[in-house]
Amino acid sequence: MISDFHGRDVLTLDEFTGDEILALLSKAKDLKGMLKKKEPHNYLDGKTIALIFQKPSTRTRISFEAGIAQLGAYPLYLNANDMQLGRGETIDDTGRVLSRYVEAIVIRTFAQEEIELLAEAASIPVINGLSDDYHPCQSLADLLTILEIKNRFSGIKLAYLGDGNNVVHSLLLGSAKVGMDIFVATPEGYEPSSLVVEKAKNIAKNSKVEIMNDPEEAVKDADVVYTDVWTSMGQESEGDIRKKIFVPYQINSKILSYAKSDTVVMHCLPAHRGEEITNEVMDGPNSVVFDQAENRLHTQKALLALLLG
Question: Is 0.85 topped by the overall pTM?
Fold first, then answer.
């Protein structure tokens, strides 16, 4: 299975089959166990991995830098403003040059098209660390968290409330790939991309992909309840309007009462406490938010080990 991953790009999660995602999650579990036992796993000794960041980051940058170091490689952080990329050099030329210096590129940027152009030009793996359209690394951590707690994907219902954003797009694809039901509730006009929804429905064979505007219907009997910020980076001018429109989609005790009693609550962070999620829920017994954040480290290490090992 490792040879199947070697040298591939990770742009949306659509690059992988369901079985390949399960294999990656299995590898992440192994690496997580090795780290807990303090067993060495420097599979990428001597390699260098470039991290290009055009957007601010806490979890993505730290989890990638720490994970790369734990694998024995060197994380080379590159702020786009400090590169010629910030002075007009094309993304294509950047990809060609970096391919001569490093073994892989992680990029966190705005336009998905920019990541795709970089991947096309580079001769080394390119990993999407977040774009305006997709967040595949986050969804891999989400899937690992759900699998650890629920021990399966089949028959599991994930309900997402909030904005139809990049996180939702990757959750739709990831859930469909592994056979988990996903119900997405957003205000009218804030639904996820119809193209991504259609793709997820075509992928899903024995699971459900449902998009709706009723948060209570989405959460009914859910095993997992998920949310994200109502206003993403680059949408700050819409913040006040969104705070009013999204109020019915807040994850609070009332909305959780429609889910199963053992439902788990997820948030990809950072959280705007008191907006999309209450303190009571985020710090409550159903929350696995910080386990989910930790799993970014383990799934990204598995990804790198499989792509480069």
Answer: yes
